[in-house]
Amino acid sequence: MRASVDVMGFNNDSKLSPSQQPKLNEERRRLHHEAEVVIVGAGILGCAIAVALGNQGRSVILLEKDLREPNRIVGELLQPGGVAALEKLGLRDCLEEIDAIKVYGYDVIYYGEEVRIPYPANALEDGGKTQENSHTDEMRGTKRKRPEGRSFHHGRFIQRLRQKAMQNENVTVVEGAATELVRSGWTGQILGVEATVQGERSAFYGGLTIIADGYASKFRKEFRKDLPVAKSKFWGLELIDARLPMPNHGHVVLGDGAPVLLYQIGTHETRALVDIPEGLPSASLAAGGVKGYLKNVVIPLLPAEVRPSFQAAIDRDRLRSMPNSWLPPTTNKAPGLILLGDAMNMRHPLTGGGMTVAFNDAVLLSELLNPQSVPMLDDTKLVLKQMRTFHWRRKGLTSVINILAQALYSLFAADDAQLKALQMGCFQYFKLGGNAVDGPVGLLAGIIRQPFVLFYHFFAVALYAIWIYITSASIISMPVRAIGSVGVFWKACVVIFPYIFSELRT
């Protein structure tokens, strides 16, 4: 096995004209399996970073074990912050020609009562702050366009991303299953990967290897001891011609069980995701299993107009599930290798933040590894220095989405009296409108990138829930409720602080 990789000749051969260099690099990738970057996984993150680095003139090999259109039940809603990042990457047109649906916000349904939480109209394009005077544009006779998300069939979107990667002259896409990493016997530096291509063993070498092989990563365990934690699964159904209460909005249905999500993914198709925690008695075999839970618990919670298509989907579809995993981020420390995407960081998909994180990570990483800052990607000390910067700079967005997803799920899947009080307080907080809606949905959408704003709204919800909890009681019961409110506040702290601490780790 080779202990080093000749990457010094990429993009700097003075004897070649600019038009000849890409052809030479393509031959090296195709014939010798050598590139500046080897990426494992042509999913959301893998395709995005391949195109971003390819656009910088980097020579890239993108490995994917199966290039057929994937068929998944998650990764189908892209928040406005993700759409903006997609545009920065030059991939906005991947949302075209896939029957994608515009998304303007959410409809939260709490025991049959609805509240609309639209994406904030006063969001600035700098991705972090809101206007001090949200009426300025209207006073000038103009109206700021509200941000928009997109929902779609996951597989169709992936295939469009792969097409863009294949069309990039600096990227070679190979269908092959990566089996193990290639290491230097002297330094331990990662030099590439071994893979099985068309039934034969091969090896691909690069100055930098990026692992983006998803939630079930084959290589993650080699670089970190902690494992993803999954306490529930999303069970997915595809509803046909469902009548949603609020078209072009995601729907969150709350009741006695865990949350149910509904959002349109095509002209005729609507995705239904039902969260079922592990060991839930009402979903046990004795209670009829998952189908029994869907019929007996979920259908009565749904809006009346959705129930017929939901029942038809139960009768027609094969039920499929995905684990709802939590994996906090860590700093990449292995020389020659970067873990990215779900291989490195996951959060509950309740808020639809995964793809927004991935595309923003691709934007940030491509900025930090641009040829002006890092001329040679096999300069491991410089790359690792940039990865430490990457770990902390991404926090403005990703810590918000990670913490919000986990904390909001705890409230929406409330299974005790304190969490139920917080859940009710959250819904009543949304009903206040104004900043009580714009702030939380701006965070969820990847528009507001300020962790303090999340902290503020979470504890505003907690205090509002306590106030309702106490004042809704009779005068005689108020003292008892006041004492009980300490438990509600303590529960709020228990919910959010572990996730805050996890984001402060290196």
Could you name the ranges where pLDDT drops below 50 across 5 or more consecutive residues? 1-9, 124-143
Q: In CATH's first tier, which class of the largest domain applies? A: Alpha Beta
Tell me, briefly, the overall form: globular
Mean pLDDT: 91
Q: Percent helix among the residues?
A: 25-40%
Terminal CA distance: 33 Å
In short, what is this structure?
With 506 residues, this protein is an alpha/beta fold. Helix content is 38%, strand content 21%.
Characterization of the model:
The chain is an alpha/beta fold and 506 residues long. It folds into three domains: 21-71 and 155-226 and 329-396, FAD/NAD(P)-binding domain (3-Layer(bba) Sandwich), CATH 3.50.50.60; 229-326, Alpha-Beta Plaits; 398-503. It is 38% helix and 21% strand. Strands 1, 2, 8, 9, 10, 11 and 17 form a seven-stranded mixed beta sheet that branches. It has a seven-stranded mixed beta sheet with strand order 6-5-13-14-15-12-16, with helices on both faces. The protein has a three-stranded antiparallel beta sheet with strand order 3-7-4. A hairpin with a 6-residue loop joins strand 9 (177-183) and strand 10. Helix 2 (44-55) runs parallel beside helix 8 and helix 3 runs parallel beside helix 8. It is globular, with a radius of gyration of 24 Å. The two termini are 33 Å apart. Mean pLDDT is 91; it is low at 1-9 and 124-143.
